[in-house]
Design a protein that fits this description.
- By secondary structure, the chain is α+β, with helices and mostly antiparallel strands.
- It has 2 domains: 336 residues, Beta-galactosidase, Chain A, domain 5; 198 residues, no CATH class.
- It is elongated and about 100 Å long.
- The two termini are 41 Å apart.
- About 10% of the residues have low confidence.
């Protein structure tokens, strides 16, 4: 490679690494809109006697609003009462402010995992849902006739929690929560007219919860909202609210998302590995789903000191279900039942719940679309190898890669031989190109006829790669949300769901990730063994030869599991290329093929 090509490659890599920071600096996003109505302060106080995350403090007069979405829910100034219900899977914290579920802590999952203390949180907290959210789950938002002063009476029942609130207009609001198995929680809500007059109640907006990052190091890229309309699921993430053109050019940020037409079966708030979903009764879907982007409290000084790379301005997404206005006669009541799933994005459990309620709640895994089929198959295969054969997850990924390579082996073998025959035929094809260089259409016709006569195809070398693209994206989709890989070790990688950073390079604050570098080296090795396509421009050949370096840039901070799959796949391809020999008959045929001679110019 000449100096000019090296310079161009270096500039391209530098631009790729600096593109997003440069765009954010030149076009900073506008600050989120605010409201001066005074909402609950997002400060937290640690609960004594447990390792649960801090909980909302009471509102202070004149405190700034936490976000736009919470403006219809103003926390009372009265002291907040917290009650906790615990079962084998989770610890549920209920609050009297709103009478809802404030926090869900998952007893079997830590907040963070890792083997390098400097790269993980120094706390010993549990993974939690609705963390630092300003509004509890199943809080009723709306007019004062529905909300009142927002203070509920909490009563512990035999198996759950009861929240009750009587309004001045005679409306009595009762919520009963019953924790169950498999991370499920049933909620029964009754609107009772205890007055002697007919009550016309406006539309009711029930809060699903807030999608929040998993910890101080989570940048929120996979935090979002999903909802299901009975046919397909929709996803709302930061990109929708940012409204950037081509994903990077700033646009006018959106403030509110609305979807659905009386067909919202469930809505879920989720991050990379955990989800909180509120499922309606099958015969009573919600009218709409509403979502807002909200700002979350910044990390404390202690957390920032322990984690210098903590996200300074975390954000989340609050979602709610909207039900239409109703009229209640005296002594009449309206009951709504919800089933809440608050737990890990574990496919087997979600698939079982989806079958139980017939609502496809497993789509919260993100396994929809064409690549979702491959993601499901790969996840099931990986879990089978782990549970049935006792393989570690890293070894299971290697085993799956070997199995996939064996399936594609005949096709790759035929492709390699075709490429070698094409390489042998290059002199003849070059002669055809020289002869008809002034007639492009005729040159293409002659080349195709020549390749057909010698039984070679220009697509022979590309076909195996094209067929493996769905597998690659299936691996990417699966690894991105498979909680089984969270904390799974392989060699020096202590978490296959994240990059395999072994340390930060001093002075540059840049991570050293060996697996993507090894992957890039194997890709360069493979490229050096791959015959060049006939007729390809020399400049294009150089670009294709060093394209692996660009792949290293793209995949450098991706999960170690994906880099492991791609590295093993490259090594197996190289081994196959070494083992595949040129067909003597094809080579002999190619050698005997006539070489068209370009016409010589007549001498004057």
């Amino acid at each position: 490679m000449d100096r000019k090509s090296i310079l161009v490659l270096v500039v391209c890599v530098a631009l790729l690494m600096l593109w997003f920071p440069l765009v954010n600096k030149l076009y900073p996003p506008p600050p989120p809109s605010s409201n001066t109505n005074g909402v609950a302060s997002a400060t937290r106080e640690a609960a004594a006697g447990s390792n649960q995350p801090a909980l909302p403090a009471t509102t202070t007069p004149g405190s700034p609003p936490a976000n736009v979405a919470a403006q219809s829910f103003v926390r009372p100034e009265t002291p907040e009462e917290l009650r906790v219900v615990t079962n084998d899977n989770a610890r549920y914290t209920f609050t009297s402010h709103g009478g809802g579920l404030q926090l869900v802590e998952l007893l079997r999952y830590p907040e963070s995992v890792g083997c390098h203390q400097k790269l993980t949180s120094s706390t010993n907290q549990l993974a939690s849902l609705n963390t630092l959210a300003p509004v509890p789950v199943l809080t009723l938002l709306g007019e004062s006739a529905l909300v009142g002063d927002g203070v509920f009476k909490l009563t512990r029942t035999a198996t759950g929690m009861r929240a009750e609130k009587k309004m001045s207009n005679g409306l009595n609001l009762v919520k009963e929560f019953q924790p169950g198995s498999n991370y499920l929680l049933t909620a029964s809500i009754r609107l009772e007219n205890q007055s002697t007059q007919t009550l016309t109640l406006p539309a009711q907006e029930w809060v699903v919860g807030t999608a929040t990052p998993m910890g101080p190091l989570d940048n929120g890229q996979v935090v979002g909202i999903d909802w299901y309309n009975g046919t397909k699921s929709e996803s709302v993430t930061e990109g929708w609210f940012a409204n950037r053109t081509l994903g990077c050019i700033p646009g006018t940020p959106r403030t509110e998302y609305r979807g659905g037409a009386s067909n919202v079966v469930w809505a879920a708030v989720r991050n990379q590995f955990f989800a909180l979903a509120v499922m309606t009764s099958t015969n009573e879907p919600a009218a709409e789903v509403i979502a807002h982007r909200i700002n979350l409290p910044p990390p404390s000084r202690e957390v920032m000191a322990a984690n210098p790379k903590s996200i300074a301005e975390p954000h989340g997404f609050q979602s709610s279900l909207l039900f239409p206005a109703v009229t209640l006669l005296p002594a009449q009541q309206l009951e709504r039942r919800f089933t809440i799933y608050a737990g890990p994005k574990e496919y087997r459990s979600l698939a079982q719940i989806a079958g139980q309620f017939d609502n496809n709640i497993d789509l919260v895994m993100g396994f929809g679309g064409f690549f979702g089929f491959f993601a499901k198959a790969l996840l099931l295969a990986m879990n089978w190898l782990h549970h049935q054969l006792g393989l570690a997850y890293g070894a299971a990924i290697i085993a799956i890669t070997v199995i996939i390579k064996m399936i594609f082996w005949p096709l790759t073998k035929a492709s390699t031989r075709s490429m070698k025959r094409m390489q042998t035929l290059q002199p003849q094809m070059k002669a055809i190109q020289d002869k008809y260089k002034t007639e492009p259409a005729k040159m293409q016709q002659k080349l195709m006829a020549f390749m057909k006569e010698n039984k070679v195809s220009p697509l022979g070398g590309c076909l195996p790669m094209v067929l493996q693209i769905p597998v690659f994206f299936g691996f990417y989709t699966m690894i991105r949300s498979a909680i089984e890989l969270r904390g799974a070790h392989f060699l020096w990688a202590c978490d296959l769901s994240k990059s395999d950073t072994i340390f930060m390079i001093p002075g540059f604050n840049f991570p050293l990730n060996p697996l993507p570098l090894i992957m890039g080296a194997t890709m360069l090795w493979q490229a050096s063994l791959t015959p060049a396509s006939p007729g390809m421009d020399p400049a294009q050949q150089k670009i294709m030869k060093y394209m692996p370096l660009m792949m290293v840039v793209f995949l450098y901070n991706f999960s170690a599991g994906l880099a492991l799959y791609w590295t093993v796949q490259n090594l197996l391809t190289i081994a196959q290329m070494k083992l595949t020999k040129t067909n003597p008959d094809a080579a002999a045929t190619a050698a005997k093929a006539p070489v068209p001679v370009a016409p010589q110019k007549k001498k004057r």
